[in-house]
User: Which sequence fits this backbone?
């Protein structure tokens, strides 16, 4: 078993205006939008979803809300690295996903391939759930050699996909695709999506405020290969790159979602930062030049 190829949208977690509570109405609206535009599945409680900044109760609320508002399969992100903490997080959210659960996204927690393989196998055995391995060293602080990641993943039959976010990602994706029998998805906000597809990625699993662009690029690649996908993707790439700014990326994306009417407020939790006003002005210019984006005049936040 493996995850279906395509675009697995990574959901933002909307908050109230003051950032203190999860805005379940906005979360439901965002969830339904992904299903309406044709996403393959959804990734909940990822980095884009600020999962590490949510309480256990909030995480459960997020998963319950998403599961109640979609028929799409769900990948649930687990932020913890230590085995006991991973199992505690999983026990909290797995029941909320019910039959929607397609896999638990587990972080690379060691550069040692044997130790990582043992960890992944233990999580799979103890939870009884499929595993999606996320390699995101900028977030975890734990780099692993690509050959070692291949070795670790190949030893665990319960792994159903890899999300590769080790920069530069195209060489990593190429090596993972060559060495594994499970799909490999790109992330990093879509910044390398075209090249990841060219070296064999199964699609995208990432946060972007205009996921229609991810879908358009992946669909074009399937139809006409690199040239057709490049022609489509170039209209979205300026916004992709603009949103992927260290420190304010999440604030930019949430503001984009507000401008699109998909969430009500653009509040982020610390250490996320509110983008400067000039960046929000530039964001509006980018959005205005992005295909298929309709902006709201009655912005509720920002």
Assistant:
């Amino acid at each position: 078993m493996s995850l279906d190829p395509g675009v697995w949208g990574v959901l933002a977690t909307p908050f109230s205006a003051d950032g203190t509570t999860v805005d379940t109405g906005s979360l439901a609206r965002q969830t339904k939008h992904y299903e309406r535009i044709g996403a393959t599945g959804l990734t909940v409680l990822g980095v884009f979803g600020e999962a590490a900044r949510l309480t256990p109760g909030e995480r459960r609320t997020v998963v319950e809300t998403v599961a109640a508002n979609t028929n799409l399969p769900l990948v649930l992100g687990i932020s913890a690295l230590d085995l006991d903490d991973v199992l505690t997080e999983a026990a909290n959210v797995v029941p909320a996903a019910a039959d929607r659960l397609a896999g638990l996204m587990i972080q690379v927690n060691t550069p040692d391939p044997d130790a990582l393989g043992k960890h992944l196998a233990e999580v799979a055995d103890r939870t009884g759930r499929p595993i999606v391995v996320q390699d995101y060293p900028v977030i975890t602080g734990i780099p692993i050699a690509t050959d070692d990641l291949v070795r670790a993943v190949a030893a665990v039959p319960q792994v159903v996909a890899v999300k590769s976010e080790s920069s530069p990602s195209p060489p990593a994706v190429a090596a993972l695709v060559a060495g594994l029998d499970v799909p490999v998805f790109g992330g990093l906000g879509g910044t390398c999506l075209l090249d990841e597809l060219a070296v064999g990625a199964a699609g995208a699993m990432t946060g972007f405020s205009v996921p229609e662009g991810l879908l358009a690029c992946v669909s074009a690649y399937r139809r006409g290969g690199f040239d057709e996908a490049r022609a489509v993707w170039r209209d979205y790439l300026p916004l992709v790159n603009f949103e992927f700014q260290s420190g304010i990326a999440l604030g930019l994306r949430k503001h984009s979602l507000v401008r699109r009417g998909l969430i009500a407020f653009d509040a982020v939790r610390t250490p996320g930062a509110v983008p400067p006003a000039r960046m929000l002005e530039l964001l509006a210019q980018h959005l205005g030049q992005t295909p298929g984006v309709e902006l709201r005049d009655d912005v509720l936040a920002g």
In short: The chain has one domain: 6-245.
